[in-house]
Each structure stands twice: as structure tokens, then as C-alpha cells.
Amino acid sequence: MEQEQLAKILEAHKLWVQGSADGRSANLEGANLISANLRSANLISANLRSANLRYANLEGADLKGANLRSANLIDANLEGANLIDANLRGADLRYANLKGADLRYANLEGANLSYANLRDANLSYANLRDANLRDANLEGANLDFSCWPLWCGSLGVKADEKLVGQLLFHVYDLAISSGVDISSIAKQKGLINESSPILSHGKELPRKKKT
Fold first, then answer.
1. Which of 13, 65, 106, 194 has minimal Cβ neighbours within 10 Å of its Cβ?
2. Are 85 and 64 in contact (CB under 8 A)?
3. Structure confidence by residue, pLDDT tens digits, 159-187
4. Which residues pair with 87 in a beta bridge?
5. Alpha helices in the chain (DSSP H)
6. Tally of domains within the chain
7. pTM score
């Protein structure tokens, strides 16, 4: 899509968001927006379903409530973007830069986020069902009230102590509630040994009283 045509669509959309009768909601479904410059663009509730946004610059863009279902966002720059309540179901976000992006309540079901940079991103209440997070960077990211994919799509993720601690707490709590010796299982699978800090930490956890 030509930049001039895109600029007209964005201007009309901006007026629509402001409630002007001269405005018109942006319908960019299936649009070819490869390498498009959409930095700080107002795309609130815009339709970008199946759009090709590969290499696009969406830094600081406002995509709150936007429809990005099945969009191609490979290598796109979404640093600091507002993606609250956005629909990213099935979107391809491989190698995308989502550093500091706000993804609260976003629908990322089935999205491919492998190798994506999600450092300091806010993913609280986001739907990550069937999402592929393999080798993604989640250092400093907030996943409170979200979900963790329990399949190989979460392998290789880079996280910080907070997230690792949250996951460990739930794993140990599950083991304690179920009467399972987690240390024995971990050793059987070759995950830890007697000198492992994980094993020694686990011994410090308080045990629940049996009722």
C-alpha cells in the first residue's frame, strides 16, 4: 500500500475515533503493509486482520482493541505499543519486538511468539492458550493472572527471577497438595542433583498440614 493512501486512511480513522462525522474506521484487512511506518499511529479498534505487517514500525502505536487476527507481524517493531484487549489470535509474531508493550487482556491464543522480545511487556490477563513462546524473552514481563503453555512451545524461554519464582511456587504447591515428591521426580528426569539450588530451596518450603 502506498504511504499516501495509508496516511489518508489513518487520518480518517483518527477522526472516527474522535467521533467526527467525517471520520471512517480503518479497514486494513489483508492489506500489504510490509515495512510500513506506523510509528505512534492511532489504530484503536482498527481492522488489521490477516494484514502483512512484516518489518513494520509500530513503535508506540495505539492498537487498543484492534483486530490483528492471523496478521503477519514477523520482525515487526511494536515496542511500547498499546495492545490492550487486541485480538492477536493466530498472529505470527516471530522475532517481533514487543519490549514494554501493553498486552493486558489481549487474545494471543495460538499466536506464534517464538524468539519475540517481550521484555518488560505487560501480559496480565492475556490469553496465551496454545501460544508458542519458544525462545522468547520474557525478562521483566508481567504475566499475572495469565497462563503458561504446558507444551514444548514454552521451552527455551528467557525469564527473570520473579516469573521463575511464580512458576516454581505453583509447581511446589501442586506437588505438596498432591503428596508428590517433586525432588525425586526431578532427579529421575536428570533435572537436578543433590547440590542443586532448586532442590535445596524446595526443602525450605513450608509443608501444608494434612487434614
1. 194
2. yes
3. 999 999 999 898 889 988 999 887 777 77
4. 67, 107
5. 3-17, 161-178, 182-188, 197-202
6. 2
7. 0.85
Q: Look up residue 154 and give its three cell numbers.
A: 514454552
Q: How far is CA 46 from CA 27, 76, 186, in A?
A: 6, 17, 47
187: domain range? Answer: 160-211
**Distance between CA atoms of residues 93 and 168, nearest Å:** 27
Q: Please name the residue ranges forming H helices in 129-206.
A: 161-178, 182-188, 197-202
DSSP labels for 65-89? T-B-TT-B-TT-B-TT-B-TT-B-T
Amino acid found at 207: R
> Do residues 106 and 70 share a domain?
yes
* 208 in the same domain as 140: no
Question: What pairs with residue 27 in β-bridges?
Answer: 47
132 and 181 belong to one structural domain: no
Q: Are residues 168 and 195 in the same domain?
A: yes
In degrees and rounded to multiples of 5, residue 190 shows phi and psi of 75, 20
**CATH code: domain of residue 120:** 2.160.20.80
Contacts of 10 (CB under 8 A, 6+ apart): 26, 38, 41, 42, 43
Over residues 119-129, the pLDDT tens digits come to 999 999 999 99
Sorting pLDDT into bands at 50, 70 and 90, what band is 85? Answer: very high
